[in-house]
Amino acid sequence: MLLVSGYTNAQDMQFKFDKSGLTDYVITDVPNKTKAEIYDKVINWIKTTYKNPNNVIVAEIKDEYVKINGAASGLTGSGSNTYIIEISIKDRKYKLDVVELKYYITPNQFRGGWYDYSLTEDVDNINYKKNGEVTRFHKVAVTEVPKYFNELNKSLFDYINSNEVTNSKKDW
Fold first, then answer.
1. How many degrees, rounded to 5, is the angle at CA 73 between CA 29 and CA 162?
2. Count of CB atoms within 10 A of residue 107's CB?
3. Using CA atoms, how far apart are residues 142 and 149, in angstroms rounded to an integer?
4. What are the pLDDT digits (tens) for 1-40?
5. Are 70 and 94 in contact (CB under 8 A)?
């Protein structure tokens, strides 16, 4: 019951994308877990979730912080995306912060390559028209970006609260 209520409280604070940009970060409660336990689970989650975990972790401070460089497809409506997230850890909670999101445009005669996707307030009306409607180019990003990071956070939360490592050792 505690596990369910812990994530329910975290549900009150999910990533969303609106005119003020993407939610800065999400803090998720994990009752009865020390920061050392959470940190170990975060590292194990990365090792089981990402294809090349040694390349994904770009910075870490034991029991306090992990910085991840990941990749996904179609988050912003273009083919390839990369992102950087930071996971800061304290007793009974962690903070997931999306630091950077990039998208790739296949080079042509006008432009191409990797570009930063703005996660901050839409002051130039790039994502939203003045009437509040989402622009055609950004309809995918406004729904898919928060959905992706909310699912990533739920996956991490579920892993932290599982007995994944212990169970796999018992099976052998």
1. 30
2. 9
3. 12
4. 344 444 444 444 799 987 778 899 999 999 999 999 999 9
5. no
pLDDT in tens, 153-169: 999 999 999 986 544 45
Show Cβ contacts of residue 9 under 8 Å, excluding neighbours closer than 6 positions. Answer: 29
- Report the candidate in 52, 44, 43 with the shortest Cα–Cα distance to residue 167: 44
List the structure tokens of 156.
């991490």
What predicted TM-score, i.e. pTM, was given to this entire model? 0.82
Q: Which residues pair with 70 in a beta bridge?
A: 83
Task: Tell me how far apart the alpha carbons of residues 36 and 150 are, in angstroms, rounded to a whole number.
Answer: 23
Asked whether 59 and 80 are in contact (CB, 8 A), the reply is no
Enumerate the H helices of the chain as residue ranges: 2-11, 35-49, 53-56, 139-160, 164-171
Helix %, strand %, coil % of the chain (to 5): 35, 30, 35
Distance between CA atoms of 149 and 163, rounded to whole angstroms? 23
Segments making up each domain of the chain, as ranges: 2-160
CATH class name, domain 2-160: alpha beta
